[in-house]
Structures are given as structure tokens and as C-alpha cells.
Sequence to fold (191 residues):
Amino acid sequence: MTTMKQSPQAIYSLRNFNILLVEDYDFISKLIVAMLKAFGVGGVTTCSGAQEAIDVLTVNQAQVRNGSAKPIDIVLTDWMMPDGSGKDLMTWMRNHKNESIRFMPVIMISTFTSESVVMQARDLGANEILVKPVSAEKVASRILSIIDHPRPFVKAITFFGPDRRRRDKTWKGIDRRKTDQSQIVQHNEAA
Fold:
């Protein structure tokens, strides 16, 4: 019998984490809150729709500026809700003028996981996508992915969000970039 050697996983304390959960179904909301609390997450705020989440994020941002609150670290949001969808929330967040909201990690949660919904969530800037029914292992895995493997954000004409590529691949074609990558790195280091 052979045993596979597993790589050691980092151990995190999430007691200083603040998570905003946007979920309209009360049972699912309570279930995910219980999971997050079991992981040791220090603060969980719940909302039942996009408009309420926008209000919470706006108030939190003002409180953080005046020093009376800690920022929200991650948003977990349902895709379809009666009071504003996850799509509405993501569009508002990724177009926000404040960088702390604009760059905030988002995990999209949905029962509807057609290719179209997954692509829309990705194209709106979701960092991760979770399929309902959720399990503690899947929720933990997505949160750890955001912590352990943060992806750089990309701004293009029709997209703003985390880089959609999950791994680096060497380009085998002709390099048609106008600026050499090393020049970009040198410019950023000088700035």
C-alpha cells in the first residue's frame, strides 16, 4: 500500500476577518454563517439582497475612513435574489470609485450553474464561484484560494476584475505586445 505525501497547509486565524454574506434564503444564510463561525471568522454581516449589501458596503466604507469599523474582507453573494441580484452587486462593486470596494474579493454562490451563469460571474469579476448546495469544505477551499492565490486585477475596455487565467502559460506564438514586459516591470519599480 502506498500513501501519497500531502503538502503541509498553512494554518490561519480568521478572527480578524469580516465577511459580508448576501443570501436571500434564510436557511442557506444561517448554514453559511455557521460554517464561517466554525472556521473562526470574527465578523459576519448578512444581507438578503444586492441593494442592502450596497448600503452595508457604503456605510462600512465611511466607518472605516473615520476609524470606527474594520473593513469587509470578502463578499459571498448569491446570484439570484429578489432585491437586486449578485450581478447588480458585482457591477456596482467593480465600477466603484473607491479601490477598497472595487478590489474586494467576491465569491459568487449559485444554484444556477449553467455555463452562461459561470461565464457571466467570471466576466463581472468574481474571484471564485461556488455551486449550491455548499459544503464547509467548498466554502473553506474558495476562501483559502483567495488568501493563498490572489490573482492580479486586470483592466480592459470591457472587463475589470481578477485575472481570469488560473495559471501562467508560455506563449508559443509571435509576441505582438507594443511594450516589452521587462520595460513595464522596470517602469513600475521606478514609480
